[in-house]
Amino acid sequence: MPGIVSHGAYVPRYRLGPETSGWPVPFQRAVANFDEDSITMAVAAGQDCLRGHDREQIDGLLFASSTSPYAEKQGAAIIATALDLRRDIFTADITDVLRSGTAALKAALDSVAAGSAGRVLVVAADTRQGPPRSDTERNSGDGAAAFLIGGDDVMAEAIGSHSLSVNMLDNWRSAGDSFVRSWEDRFAIEEGLERILPEAVQGFCQKYGMNPDSFDRVACFAPDARRHGRLVRQMGFAPEQVQEPYFGRMGNTGAAFPLMLLSGALDELEPNKNILVVSYGDGSDVMAFRTTELVEAASMGKGGLNRHLDTGTVLDSYETYAKWRDIWTTDEAARRPAPSSPSVAALWRESDKNMRLHAGKCVSCGYVQYPQQRVCVNCQRREESNPVRLSEQPAEVFTYSMDYIAGAVDTPLVVSVVDFHCGGRMLCMMTDRELEEVHVGMPVTMSFRKLRVVNGIHNYYWKAIPRRFESEASLG
Amino acid sequence: MSGIKDRVAIIGMGCTKFGERWDSSAADLMVEAAYEAYEDAGIEPKDVQAAWLGTVSSFRTGQPLAEALKLDYIPITRVENACATATDAFRNAAYAVAAGIYDIVLAVGVEKLKDSGFSGLAVPEAPGSDVSPPTPPPSQFAMAATRYFHQYGIPYEEGKRTLARIAAKNHHNGTLNPRAHFQQEISTDQVVNAPMIAWPLGLFDCCGVSDGAAAAIITTPEIARSFRQDYVLVKALSLSVGAFGAIRSDWDFTHFPETVRASQAAYQEAGISNARDELDMAMVHDCFTITELIIYEDLGFSPRGRASEDVESGAFTLEGDLPVNTDGGLKCFGHPIGASGIRMIYEVYKQLQGKAEARQLQKADLGLTHNLGGRPGSFTCSVAVFGAAP
Predict the structure, then answer these.
(1) Domains parsed from chain B with CATH numbers
(2) What is the pLDDT of residue A1?
(3) Per the CB < 8 Å rule, is A417 touching B253?
(4) Residue B27's closest CA among B60, B59, B5, B57?
(5) Hey, is the C-beta of A459 within 8 angstroms of any chain B C-beta?
(6) What's the CA gap between A20 and A39, in Å, rounded?
């Protein structure tokens, strides 16, 4: 029976909150750092999901987002490479709508049910931007979820799905626009959300002979806390059935949102519980899952979504956020020449080094060295080396500097030399850091980030981040 | 291997004023330095049989030297070897004379950095994947400082104070040198409290960026004697190029093996058994204060981890037992990359001749120059030793 084998989530470290000057909102929302986008967050959620699972068994990857960085160029291929998946897999982007997360989940379940794939990884991420001071900016959040879909060893079986497709311009963003646009929200809510979701849920119940009481949890999309509360009441769910929607802590994470709520529900539920997932956007997808005996074991030691929500750092000022999102453009100090386009040939050639973060382990002497060398740095023999994936390996800071002139956004730029516990040393930038926590010997993990965009090329690489969760100390 | 010791001599040198030479092109600077060297040697331009031009980013070939000096269709080679560029141009010129190919040759080092419009170094790089962290030199050497403080348990304030004394010493020497870019005293408090560039290095821990050129006329000792009695002999020329990079996780970041290897080779070639005792001066690559501190140990002047004691005691000041960077160093000259090595040789040459004016050392028979190009983990290091004529 197809279902969920594993799940993971990612919420960025930073928050806008009541303590943020220039952001007059009494609650928090999650914000991606300047070097994060939907692809990097999808990779982070994918890493979370895949801990302890064999990546060789994965036959496909679906990336869902309304904010994929490229208009032409597949995000899924980038994510699959960063996650060090096989080359002979099916990858696709499912984009452009808030409903794309559940669409990807359904496509993965259907392909497993049809036998065209054994295991499929679904990653959903969004970094939707509203105009400054808009409701969209206030209520949105940045985040990602990942689900490993398979036919056996599932922690939650798929019960079924039901969809409505309704063409409607309540939220839209044309190619080239930075900000999401919305029509008057009385229309959008009354004729859109509050009409479509109840109809879709009712349709699902009729199709599967269920009713609102059949569900232990409902993970339901809504743009904000007030609409969420009204909607679940309207659809006949009691408060104890409702999965906490994390408004005020995280915000509406767009395409990832219903999947993140599903992930949160799976963190908490016992075996044999039913979860209803309801998404929205040009209609609705409704899906349901039933947890199995494996649900508790699968969530053990992961800590789940809550640990991401509990480890936030609130920004001092809205100005920082505005710089990160390019709302406030910074004058690059006249220090360095403008960067030229990266060489695509070099990026392609260095894919194992830059994207898969492979070190080499010398077959002759066993010395681990990053990047892989033609001639071993230790034994100086010209031997082959075996790849060692460093992206999940714990590491610690050997030395570092804090450069006050090299960058304009992330000042000072922390450059670190990190030593991996498995061997190997890497010079890399450190991100998601507060200056006072940086020290020699500091435990770090690796995070996939966007360095810069030049010539329309989103150039990604790995950076060190302060170890966010204790459980990562021994993983790898 | 017979080595270079006593096989070639310098009979003339020139060095421009270093600084923001808005008025001068790289060609102007080369002419200024070369004509001072001609005049000092007492030769005519037509006496030059071959030339080597050291430059990192000002020119791609040797041709601009021929055009600037109107040389007479002689062979000219451009040399580029990072911060060791000038010394390596000198080294190649010296080897050609030692090989008996030429009698009189010219080595020129030049760099014009201040036309870039950027405050730091703006050296173009070949196309690549551009994923390496942006690590301009201050950031690279700051990582050495961070680790040095950590490894030897030096509190931040104490470490900063030690580094500040190095900057203040070099600035003091620069006040005595009319060719230096910066010619004013600075206090250790100014250094410690200066704006941060790359923590833990502040503004005055960094050398300047400037324009300049220097030149040397090289010949055999036999020919040198017919020109002047106070010629200067080359005692050693060594070059060490790091091969392992910063990817070995057992490298400590607190010593630079390239300096150790280059200096050991140079000491052997020159017949020096105790550098601290036998050398009378050293011009070293103080691109940053931490670099000079580590160089003291790498050159064998101070025991490992204890260079700060020698800094405290004033051992490397003009009055100390081994004055270092008597001309003001990179700290006061800035670092026009292709010129710095020959600028250092110029100071040793003048000191050995007793012509170093207010900076003149009482005992000046043997001097060393040192350049360190690249970055911690992968350096190109040159060490040269010069002695007064017998």
Answers:
(1) 9-116+211-233 (3.40.47.10), 137-207+234-388 (3.40.47.10)
(2) 85
(3) yes
(4) B59
(5) yes
(6) 27
Give the whole-angstrom CA distance, residue A30 versus residue B208.
43
Q: Is B287 a catalytic residue?
A: no
Residues of B whose CB is below 8 A from A417: 143, 246, 253
What are the φ and ψ backbone dihedral angles of B153, each rounded to 5 degrees? Answer: 60, 35
Query: Is A207 in contact with A162 (CB distance < 8 Å)?
Result: yes
| Measured distance CA(A190)–CA(B152) in Å, rounded | 69
Q: Tell me, what's the ipTM? A: 0.95
Among the listed residues B255, B335, B370, B381, the single catalytic one is B335
Tell me which DSSP letter residue A244 carries: P
Residue type, A246: Y
Measure CA A313 to chain center. Answer: 18
**What whole-number distance in Å separates Cα of residue A407 and Cα of residue A410?**
6
Interface residue of B146, B148, B152 to substitute, partner A, most A CBs within 10 Å: B146
Q: Which of residues 384-423 of A touch B (CB under 8 A)?
A: 398-407, 412-413, 415, 417, 419, 423
Q: Which residues of A touch B198 (CB under 8 A)?
A: 401-406, 412
Mean pLDDT of chain A: 94
* A400 interaction partners in chain B (CB closer than 8 Å): 143, 146
| Nearest CB neighbour to B248, from listed A377, A427, A454 | A377
Binary contact (A459, B118; C-beta < 8 A): no
Residue entry with tokens 């743009």:
A223
Neighbouring C-beta atoms of residue A182, cutoff 10 Å? 19
Q: Is B11 helix (H, G, I), strand (E, B) or coil?
A: strand
* H helix or E strand, kind and range, residue A370: none
Determine the Cα–Cα distance for residues A171 and A177; give it in Å rounded to an integer: 13
What averages of pLDDT result for each successive group of 10 residues across chain B (390 residues)?
94 98 97 98 98 96 98 97 97 98 98 84 80 92 98 98 98 98 97 97 96 98 98 98 90 97 98 98 98 98 98 98 98 97 98 98 98 95 97
Whether omega for the bond prior to residue A412 falls within 30 degrees of 0, making it cis, is yes
Say if residue B140 is exposed, middle or buried (CB neighbours under 10 Å; 0-12, 13-18, 19+).
buried
CA distance A73 to A30: 27
3-state secondary structure of A374: coil
Structure tokens at A283: 């209609």
B130/A407 touch (CB, cutoff 8 Å), yes or no: no
Q: What are the distances in angstroms from CA A178 to CA A23, A98, A329, B145, B331?
A: 20, 16, 14, 43, 47
| Interface membership of B155 toward A (CB under 8 Å) | no
Strand partners, A313: A14
* Torsion (CA) A269, A274, A278, A284 in degrees, nearest 10: 150
B335 is catalytic: yes
Segment (H or E) for A345: helix A344-349
pLDDT at residue A197 above 80?
yes
Q: A166 — contact with chain B (CB < 8 Å)?
A: no
- A424 closest CB neighbour out of B124, B131, B249: B249
Q: Which residue, A405, A451, A407, is CA-closest to A428?
A: A451
Average pLDDT over residues A133-156: 96
Cα–Cα distance between A61 and A38 in angstroms, integer? 15
A427: nearest CA partner in chain B: B133
Identify all chain A residues contacting B249, using CB atoms and an 8 Å cutoff. Answer: 398, 419, 423-425
